[in-house]
Design a protein that fits this description.
By secondary structure, this protein is α+β, with helices and mostly antiparallel strands. The chain has helices at residues 2-18, 25-44, 49-54, 83-86, and strands at residues 56-64, 69-76, 93-96, 102-104, 125-132, 143-148, 151-157. A hairpin with a 4-residue loop joins strand 1 and strand 2 (69-76). The longest helix has 20 residues, at 25-44. It is extended, with a radius of gyration of 25 Å.
């Protein structure tokens, strides 16, 4: 009986030693970063004129807050070009293409404007703007245009 237990123990130890070591954490991080870089380069080839001019990539426009807000997210890859998006002198607004309605960014007294207005954008970060959607006017699948100063992000599909 003792020989059997020793044999089982020996086989399990041999099997544990024979396993290939898994990839280290840094190897996995490098692989993910490489994949993200490839994806961002591919996405950069499909940028609109406004995205190229502002050094950003539109990530998404989504319904939020039970459909009463629209969450616009964008990724900054060139912080110098993206300065107009951080400027306090521009008041972004959203145009619902089906109805032509203009929707702005609310600015409640206690919280202030529902958009990020940093002094300058940092590269490789995402930022947001929240637009009002009174009465749930904009639905999933609708197309919208977002205007910031003279720049227009057109034909964005709401998710």
């Amino acid at each position: 009986m003792r020989k059997i237990w020793c044999l089982i123990l020996l086989l399990s130890l041999t099997g544990a030693c024979a396993q290939r070591p898994s990839a280290t954490r840094t190897d996995r991080l490098k692989a993910v970063q490489t994949e993200e870089t490839v994806q961002s380069v591919e996405a950069a080839q499909e940028l609109s004129e406004a995205e190229k001019a502002l050094g950003v990539r539109v990530e998404t426009v989504r319904l939020a807050a039970a459909g009463y807000m629209l969450d616009f997210r964008y990724y900054v890859y060139d912080s110098e070009k993206s300065r107009p998006l951080a400027s306090k002198k521009f008041f972004p607004y959203l145009i619902h293409q089906r109805t032509g309605a203009y929707l702005g960014i609310p600015a409640p007294a206690k919280v202030g404007s529902l958009r990020q207005k940093p002094r300058s954008h940092y590269p490789d970060r995402s930022y947001f703007m929240l637009f009002a959607n009174p009465g749930g006017l904009v639905k999933r699948g609708d197309r919208v245009t977002i205007v910031v100063g003279k720049y227009r992000f057109e034909n964005l599909v709401v998710q």
